[in-house]
Write a structure and sequence with these properties.
By secondary structure, this protein is of the alpha+beta class.
Amino acid sequence: MKYRKNAVFVLCMVLMLAGCSKKEDERWSSSVPIVTTQEAENKPETEDGDDVSTEYNYSYETPSFNYESGFYDDKISLEISRENKEFQIRYTLDGSTPDFNSDVYSSPVTIVDRTQEENVLSAIKGIAPAGDEYQPKFKINKGTVVKAAVFDKNGVSGPVVTNTYFVGQSQEEEYNGLPVISISTDAENLFDYEKGIYMLGKAFDDWKSTTNIYMVEEWNYEGNYSQRGREWERLVVFELIEPDGKVGYEGMLGLRIMGNATRSYAQKSFRLYAREEYSGEKNIKYPLIPNTTKENDDTQILKKYRTFLLRNGGNDCSYSKVRDPLVQRMVSDRNLTTQESRPAVVFINGEYWGLYAIEEDYSDNFIQHNYDIDNKDAVIIKCGELEEGEESDMDLYRELTGILESDLTNAGTYARLCQIADIQNFADYFVTLIYTANEDCLLNYNNNWRLWRSRTVTDLAYQDGKWRYMLYDTEFSLGLYRDAGYGNHNSLQGAMSGNVFENLIKNEDFKKLFVTTFMDMRNENFNPVRALSILDELDSEYGPEIGDSVERFGPGWVANSGDPKKQYQEQIGNIRSFLNTRYSYTPGMLKKVLKLSGEAVDVTLRTSKGGSIIINSVSPDLSQGSWTGQYFTDYPVSLTAVCEEGYEFTGWSGGITETSESVIMSFSEAVEVTANFSEK
């Protein structure tokens, strides 16, 4: 039986359905009645075809279904019931909102496998420029979205209940056991010429009437899909069916197209919004990405979202889709803000919409949920513009940019930078971009970067007023659009030209931090054994479903190749080659570009029973008895012995013979060091 959502404001529904919207910071009057519903997007017609607005009474009962949303082997006989027999039940099977013209329920509805029915939404043209326009040449998989509501004799509707059924399909076998998402809405919200947010539409025709489109790249075309703001948000019902076949989260959300150039792709990314006026809840209180922990406390599972993304893979959309999640996972344990994600299969109004990633979305609410900092205290700068915060916060940012553009070889200037910026975060961020050879970032196109800080400064962690980078849109990396030899690309040399990093690296203290951090992350985060293990995990999640997604969305030359998965497999091979090659190549790149005089030599660590070792910024796994990484002899490394409970540190042996738990070790050749512990 479908549960009832909490509260919905009637006035908001009426305004939205009429094509109006309020600005995000406006609030509805407290005198507006709160009502109970699952959906209220309804525009019925009279007999002469004129649009009218359906009246709603949300005190009316909600119909009940005898089957839950999910997957069924054989056809089902769906019974829709209500207690008050004076009401009629009206329903739809195409994702549209039932109105007084919809079918009247009088007997069980047989729900069958609809896959052999003609494609409807996926056959619509005009969703992308010619270069990306593609419609599948076969009948795609389909489910059935059932929406029902009770109506009184005057045509007044009660709350709408929504279920989605997949008959004759196996979630495990056909969708690799991935979560399946059903998004349903009146089709014109996405595909109408004037207001459909998925279309080139009227906005494109208006734009091209004043533009020489032959001088504009297709990914920069303006269309309905490139419009932004609350006016271009559409109300949808969202259902998430978990791998165990049970509905995990369902509710009414706002949906927008998101991204930059990728808005022009046939498969577009979405940003989804929880709003009190939709469902009575300001947040989604559900672990959309299981086992994701808060950024400031890895013992707490994140169970609250205000917004989240359904991402198509960005620049990697038509290739592997795994580059961004791979980069994010490789460095998720570093001093960086990263986005967790998991793959999912999406359907819109029952039609297969391909493979996506459910991904965290950066916002002031992300800061609040992950760092326990009030969202009103969060400041986010995106590519030099204020994204979250107050106008006065730009003064804080201008102080940072002023220092970053100053002479950082001056010790006082650099010291001030370290007071207002998390300098280890800066080092981690630039290492990640350079090691992965990111070609669409702060270092080359001044693109895809965010900084955040708390406005208020306290003694609390992360409320220290320091600026920190947020990692996102990292997929233009790891050799995307390149051949398998791109691991030898000298991205460090490219980073030394006209940007923040070029000025930072002139400071000897930051140079030392950067080099040691680079080798830390090379030895651990990007070590091929670890990195390829993460790639294998992603391959097992994305790989089995990628062929169907490519056949659905193209590009045409791949979808029609006879082996739509071939390009994906080649891309996975290129990523493997990049990671292996990069590991060998990067020490020489550092030495050459940064003019290091020393060599990268092995540092081997061992411990006796009862403790572990931290070297610089990493805690290597010593469970096999030893660990070896490479470091440049130009700079010493820091070592800290960490005792297990019941043990005490008794001293170092090997390359050093000191008794302090924390030491700075200089070396001129390969060295072995042991941390010794004994029981108390």
